[in-house]
Amino acid sequence: MSALIELSGVSKHYGELLALDAVDLELPEGRIGLLGPNGAGKSTLLKSLLGLVEHDSGVVRIFGEEVRRDPFEIRARIGYMPEGDAVMPELTALEYTSFAGELTGLPRPEAVSRAHQVLHYVGLGEARYRRLGSFSTGMKQRARLAQALVGDPKLLLLDEPTSGLDPRGRDEMLALIRDIPERTGTSVMLSTHILPDVEKTCDHVVVLARGKVLYNGALGPLITSEAGVYEVRAKGDPGGLRKALELGRCVVQVQGSALEVKVPEGEGPQYVLRLALEAGEQVRHLAPLKKTLERAFLQTIERAG
Ligand code: ADP
What we know:
Bound molecules: adenosine-5'-diphosphate
Number of strands: 14
Strand order of the largest sheet: 6-7-8-3-9-10
Strand content: 25-35%
Helix content: 25-40%
Radius of gyration: 24 Å
Low-confidence stretches: none
CATH topology of the largest domain: Rossmann fold
CATH superfamily of the largest domain: P-loop containing nucleotide triphosphate hydrolases
Number of helices: 11
Structural class: alpha/beta
């Protein structure tokens, strides 16, 4: 089976600025997080998938088809929620969403009926006859998600969909995003600079920085620690335990009140306990170190220089 999204050698300049630098990517169906700091090239990448920016070189394929050949046909199969919270304030949520449906090529009656369905789905059923200008930011973002979903897309591209939301609004939006592939079989690509958003919703991660792909793979391995690294907490002051572990050839880093301990090759957690016992130190907590996505992200960027 061909990949959902394929980029090969894709570069894009804006004048002198290189926004995408020979990007090669093959992405499966599912929930994909596109993660990177501001200015990394994420929006440019999404727009090149849609054929909205013309790349200078390389090939972009979606659903196995080259986007350049017929961008209109490809766009009809993609839902897109651009960055920002712009809506047409004078339209009701229903008018706005139906209009978006017609733009994807649905006949009017079908667009209206789909609009009712998706507005219910995003939690705006009761508010669908209200004008968007009267909506809170959270409601506007839901309406923008509804317009991206109305054409029953095979792929949904979401550019910073939680921006401007309060923690509750953000959690609700993320729950919807998580739910979409299971409900409808639609694949989702979520572009964001917010690591926990990706951690909560995605199975596959692409890390982009300065237009280059630094990581492309499953989320799991990225945040699973290397073998032989443990989080260790001492009872009381960790100084003595740290010394004992270092004497036993462990590599120790202090992380707040905990120690991050890499044991010598071939050793396991028992080794930490034995060294502690021999030195008369007490261990209160010992577990394989779980990396946060933030840490994995920083390490990935550091490794890339
Ligand atoms: P991200 O979405 O990761 O924040 P963008 O794709 O928006 O990154 O931008 C990547 C780089 O390209 C940034 O340095 C940005 O300033 C620049 N850029 C984006 N769009 C344009 C444009 N239309 N004209 C000139 N520079 C642009």
